[in-house]
Amino acid sequence: MPQTNKKSGLKDDKNVRAFLAKTIGEDAESDAVMNMLREFRWNMTLYRCAIREVQTKFEVLDEELSISRVRNPIDRIESRVKSPESIADKLRRNHLEFSIASMRENLNDIAGLRIICQYIDDIYTVSDMLSKQDDITVIKVKDYIHSPKPNGYRSYHMVVEVPVFFSEQKHSVRVEVQFRTIAMDFWASLEHDIRYKKDISDPAAFAADLKDCADIAYSLDVRMQKIRDRIK
Ligand code: 0O2
């Protein structure tokens, strides 16, 4: 999940239109494609607004906690809206049809936020604070910190639903929030790059080394937290 994704800002409607036309097998000038483009744009606006709503909540929490705890638990926040290509890929991988309804129904991570925290316990503090807010509904939690993936991936994933108030109606929108420490994010970003490098013929050859690095990053997190506690 890269930083705020300009690709899916739909500035270039022509490319998106061509992509939609190819994906649904219709002419780019057809009514079907034009209608889909309109609906797609509207939905992407909704997802971008949902990101803003949730991001503001974290900024508020971070500012408040920086006063009561004399440090900021959040190092930085990244966000992105999934690109049309990634949306289509994920639906295809899950053997689902490509349609606006299917994407709204089946994908939890079209709107994505990444909260990079300083320490492991900050992740649990801020995620708990978010989940207790009365306009937030927690849909799903995956704790890859307590149960890391076999490759060493650690992160705390939460899918939440947030209301977005448009002029005429309130919409509930799902947003995926990934919480990581700086060390977890360092590992995941490099691992992601390595995994998607096309010129690496045998990615499995690096698996053991990468898993080692993930474990080292985690022990660094644990040690840094202990040092912080000693200073406290
Ligand atoms: P991108 O471009 O990173 O967003 P769900 O849809 O909730 O049922 P999902 O999304 O299939 O479940 O799986 P999961 O494990 O909850 O989360 C997937 C996302 O977590 C990935 O997004 C990555 O961002 C991140 N992630 C999961 N496993 C790994 C890993 O082993 N290495 C790294 N670097 N990141 C991982 P996508 O879909 O890859 O797209």
If you had to describe this structure to a student in words, what would you say it looks like?
It is a single chain. With 232 residues, the chain is α+β, with helices and mostly antiparallel strands. It is 51% helix and 19% strand. The protein has helices at 13-24, 31-68, 84-93, 100-106, 120-131, 182-196, 207-231; strands spanning 74-81, 111-117, 137-143, 156-165, 170-181. It has a five-stranded mixed beta sheet with strand order 1-2-5-4-3. Helix 1 packs across helix 2 (31-68) and helix 6 (182-196) runs antiparallel to helix 7. The longest helix is centred in the first third of the chain and has 38 residues, at 31-68. Mean pLDDT is 92; it is low at 2-10. The structure holds ligand 0O2. Ligand 0O2 binds next to helix 6.
Tell me briefly what this model is:
With 232 residues, this protein is of the alpha+beta class. The protein contains 7 helices and 5 strands. 28% of the residues are buried.
So what's the overall shape?
A: flat
**Major sheet details:** 5 strands, mixed
Amount of beta strand: 15-25%
Number of helices: 7
Question: What characteristics describe this protein?
Answer:
binds ligand 0O2; alpha+beta; flat; 232 residues; 5-stranded mixed sheet; 5 strands; 7 helices
List strands and helices in order, with pairings.
Layout: H1 13-24, H2 31-68, E1 74-81, H3 84-93, H4 100-106, E2 111-117, H5 120-131, E3 137-143, E4 156-165, E5 170-181, H6 182-196, H7 207-231
Parallel strand pairs: 2-5
Antiparallel strand pairs: 1-2, 3-4, 4-5
Helix pairs in contact: 1-2, 6-7
The chain binds ligand 0O2.
